[in-house]
Write a structure and sequence with these properties.
Serine Threonine Protein Phosphatase 5, Tetratricopeptide repeat, 54% helix, mainly alpha, five-stranded mixed beta sheet
Length: 517
Amino acid sequence: MRCSPFPLLLALTAFLTLPEVRAQADPLTLKAHEALLAMELEEARQILALLPADSPAVASERALLAIYEGDCDGALAVLERAGLSAKPLTAELAEIARGCARVTAATTVLQDEHRGFVLRFKDEDDVPLAPFLMEVADRAVDTLDRELKVRLPRPLRIDVVRDHHSLAAMTGLPEESAQTTGTVAIAKWGRVTMLSPRAMSHGYSWADTLMHELTHLAVSRASHDRAPLWLQEGIAKRQETRWRAPFPFDDLPPPDVVARLGFDRGIALPLDKLGPSIAMLPTAEQAMVAFAEVHSFLRFWIKENGEDALGPFLHALAAVSTQDGVDVTLRRLTGHDLASWSQRWQASLAQVPSNLPPELASFPPSRDESASVRPRIPTPSSPSRMLYRSARLAELLEARGHREPAVIYARRSHEMAPFDPSGRARLARPLRALGRQEEATPLIEHLDAVRAPHGIFLALHGALLRARGDESAARHAFEAALHHDPLSPEVACELVEGDRLPEDKAKAALCQAVRRR
């Protein structure tokens, strides 16, 4: 799963979900909280400065403001001074402040005052990624401003952490949920917290993930956090790739098909019954279907209402504080409520294919099938086991300089999974090193021959294009590779020969850092 963000429902934080604390709040405190939801931190600070510090509601909001500003130690100090750090209603907020303080101790902080970004790295080895993170963030916020009419405030904070434990500590998402659903980033507390690409063996689509999470912040700001989960995730999925040029595998697997299969197999949920977070669904398959549902629904809704309908819908939600605010807003803008739109969307799914190519299918058996099919226990001769064994042997042999036998095992793994870009890269790499370019070229020549992005495959594709003199297409491929696996030598150094470095200064610094590891 590329990303599975934890929506900005703030269910753990403020008195809006805590009746006993809310009862103590006055209108001015409520106004400060609304300012926080809209990420208007200076306005919230000015309001809270006028309020008595001994109020539990005010202390909670001051602590929340400190977390938004990245001062987790300060947030904990506020709660402790108010005697709230161990109270049942605010202990969870205090625990998040403690976890955040632990993770952010001894971090490296970089600030781009011109563009208004603050980056915080837990691992100093990730610092060379800073220019690329800032570039993606800059393009992302411009896209959100243009398409959703939402300008995110500055400074905009992005934290890069090492592992799921740190991700959970910083945000309050249960670590088990993060690992189960493959969560790699979370938009919460007015910032994005994301895993370093080094947390996975071949990276992940960190750039599209960053766009996804920044969209969550924009949606929360525009709607004052009144957008429900399906709308949050639907818009975020839609925006993931809109900040950049398209690639052939961007829409694979097609969300309409996955959504239909989810309903056919009984694992899809109604849009308004997805729970507090997709990241907290019980399986990765259910999370995949949920993302497909919200993406498919939103594309259908925009097709029916026009590209310009989304921004006004979001901003209109901010003015409706009732629980049925979405239905009220939808009826006013479109004449139909959510149930009606959902019914029309599900009817449209009957027109889409009801299956996926085998290389894109990853569903468990349907309820009817599972009653008659026993779970298959992998054996040493099972295809998946043989694929893994061949791929792993190829990698180990190549790493030790045994390229000829590496080719033999890499070819076996490629034949078992011909559409897998990692298998194509695993075979093409030793072939190139052996001077057998004519055999390597067909493996990496065409992007539409694979079903998913892979950093090293894209870098090999870029090197082939560069050798052919197509510098523009090569740059496009290398940029895409960087946005997936920036810390692999092939990607960071763009497959330049010997001790040479890429011409771009930031890429040269990244290449040098990767070579030192």
